[in-house]
Give the backbone structure.
Amino acid sequence: MKKVLIYYDQKQHKNSIELLAVARMIYGDDSTGKEGIEDYETYGASFGSIGEEAEGLFDFLIEVGNDSAQHGKRAKVFNHEQGPKTLNHEYGKDHLPVYDALYMTSVLDELQQEYRFDCILFPATHMGRMLAPRLAMRLQTGLVADVTDIRHKDGVMEIVRPAFSGKLMAGILSRTAPLMMSVRQNVFFYEPDSLGETRRINHTPKTVCTGEIRLLEVREKEASKDIRDSDVLISGGGGVMKDFKKLSELASELNALVSASRKTVDNGIAPRSIQVGQSGKTVSPKLYMALGINGSIQHIEGLKNVEYMISVNTNKNAPICSISDIVVEGDAKEFITKLTEKIRKEKQI
Amino acid sequence: MKIICLIKFVPDVENFKYDYERNVLVRENVRMILNPDDACSVALALKVKEQQPGTVIEVVTMAPQSIIPQLEDLLRLNVDRAVLISDKVYVGSDTYVTGRILGRYLSEASFDCILAGTHTLDGDTSHVPSQVAELLGLSQMSNVVEIDEAVFCRERAVVLADEEFTYAKYEITLPAVISLRKDRKYKLPYIRYEDLSRDVKDRIRIIDNEELGFVQEEVGIVGSLTQISSTFVKSMEKKERLIVRNDEEGMNQVYSFLMERGFV
């Protein structure tokens, strides 16, 4: 029986749960070219307790709890407007320093020594990307970053990841145990065959946090809506840079969110939080409207399972146009105005 | 205080050409540039040195010796020293091995803070700064977009990290490894005209494996724990597509497309 540990990032439930699909591709799915499937069990490990989201999906959930007497330090946040307040969610949950990678690595190492996992997976989140390399070095094992696919061929597993900002894909062999990977967010989707029974295990760490990193303040980002959650994205690139604000008019008519290409972000026109592509976010909307976007490989790398695509471009041979359902050959700014008007007019009828 | 900037020179991927006929990426003759996130770390160190004149900046990189002219340019920008770790036996090292090689040099070096970049244009694994920190037993923080220069000292740093949904401010006890993420606040200055051809060779130290003393089987391709087995360019699937114009007929077609699929 193989044992798979999945680091459960409390801030990104979905991205943690989707790693169950990766575990299945590694051990339990012969459609990936694997010869014969292996039995495996999944362990989710989180710092603090895990809610209902993961119930029935993992075989085991290891909740790293904390004996506050042992650690004593209660994570506090200093908000300049409201004064100090104790964090009650995400940060410092159960008084754990969930931003101290050195401490967290030692706790994950404790788990590895106790359970001897064959495979350890991390979502490539802010924290996952800091923890995975540390733990790999601690365990003296190889690590593959930002994995986007798993392939089996002739009994050998090849782990696929992008390189050169997504312009090239590389197949990697990992030669050591445990097998370790960080996995690109929103690339895999997990559909459970059926819900099972999840056993919860409480783990009290032996490691004592030395408190070398102290959290002073947390501030939510302004763009609270996540482009990854939207069914429709109106995406703007170099061709609409001068009129980027107009995108939101069309977006509001289609109940959509506005996203952007790297060019607009690098020019300071759009915030990085709405950037689609290799260096931005991977999105899977039902409808993606690419306005004035050329569609470099890095941009297209950020589009996964898009159902319908409409692109507007003065050059009908731009790379994005070859993967579109409808190509509007023309000026994207003009298109925005015309389509917005058309939708408004139709609504009045 | 002494700041070490861990830097990497990477191919300028923006200028890769794509050969559509052969379905390959043309990587030959692409120039090497200082990785943008790492350039931010050097720019920040230079800013600190301006405000705290006693600051010593050392850049450390693992690269072939052909990179020396680029290191010289950094030295002409008021960087004090450059350390080039270079040996034929290191070629092909994965991040685990690279972390160990850099870690061995750094474990003997003196510093108050190590600055690095979070992302790179080439491999972009973000492994090396974390792995170096692990080897040295130090704290590490990624995605840092700002270091408060006013309170940056030998004992501590106050940093702002961009963590996807939130910005978090931390106070970190030094020494530690801080990985920056590209931000417009930190930009490398230009070399002053009178410094353009200044001889700075004596401030470059080249370290090879004789000095670091790895057994050959521990480094390079043979010592790596992961190995590249294939590379390929993602083929795009072509769709049956409809090409329309920005006129009334075009708008009607787009509109009916949206209506038939329930978007309006």
Chain A has two domains: 2-203, 227-348.
